[in-house]
């Protein structure tokens, strides 16, 4: 996702899946594929290498699970404790949350 309007659309009437380390927000889009947006504030993850590592793992996890995901826009929001996770733990947590968001919504 490229523009602030895309992000704003996701925040309105979105489904959430969260953990103590990050939150994924999703909203159906009119495209034929899912899209990913990342919000990794300096206030939460202080160092540039830490922010880059988080974004790299989030993108890779999204790429690996993209075929399972519905046509939705997803925004991943990092929390401070995300920098303490190992790469493997972060991948496992992303997989769990992608799976939760790929289920059909109730009602």
From TrEMBL:
**Record InterPro entries:** Ribosomal_Su5_D2-typ_SF (IPR020568), Ribsml_uS5_D2-typ_fold_subgr (IPR014721), RNase_P (IPR000100), RNase_P_CS (IPR020539)
Give the domain of life.
Bacteria
Q: What class of enzyme is it?
A: hydrolase
- As recorded in UniProt, coiled-coil segments are none
Q: Which GO terms describe its molecular function?
A: 3'-tRNA processing endoribonuclease activity; ribonuclease P activity; tRNA binding
Q: Which reaction(s) are listed as its catalytic activity?
A: Endonucleolytic cleavage of RNA, removing 5'-extranucleotides from tRNA precursor
The protein's Enzyme Commission number: 3.1.26.5
Q: Give one Pfam hit by family name.
A: Ribonuclease_P
GO-annotated biological processes: tRNA 5'-leader removal
Task: Give the UniProt keywords, A-Z.
Answer: Endonuclease, Hydrolase, Nuclease, RNA-binding, tRNA processing
What GO cellular component entries does it have?
ribonuclease P complex
Q: How is the subunit organization of this protein annotated in UniProt?
A: Consists of a catalytic RNA component (M1 or rnpB) and a protein subunit.
What family name appears in the similarity comment? Belongs to the RnpA family.
What is its biological role? RNaseP catalyzes the removal of the 5'-leader sequence from pre-tRNA to produce the mature 5'-terminus. It can also cleave other RNA substrates such as 4.5S RNA. The protein component plays an auxiliary but essential role in vivo by binding to the 5'-leader sequence and broadening the substrate specificity of the ribozyme.
According to UniProt, the name of this protein is Ribonuclease P protein component
Annotated source species: Vibrio breoganii
């Amino acid at each position: 996702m490229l523009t602030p309007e895309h992000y704003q659309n996701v925040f309105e009437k979105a489904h959430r899946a969260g953990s103590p380390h990050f939150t994924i927000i999703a909203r159906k889009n009119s495209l034929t594929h899912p899209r990913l947006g990342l919000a990794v504030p300096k206030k939460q993850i202080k160092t540039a290498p830490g922010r880059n590592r988080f974004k790299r793992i989030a993108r890779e996890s999204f790429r690996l699970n993209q075929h399972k995901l519905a046509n939705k826009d997803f925004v991943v929001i990092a929390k401070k404790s995300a920098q303490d996770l190992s790469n493997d733990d972060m991948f496992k947590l992303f997989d769990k949350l992608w799976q939760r968001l790929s289920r059909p919504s109730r009602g």
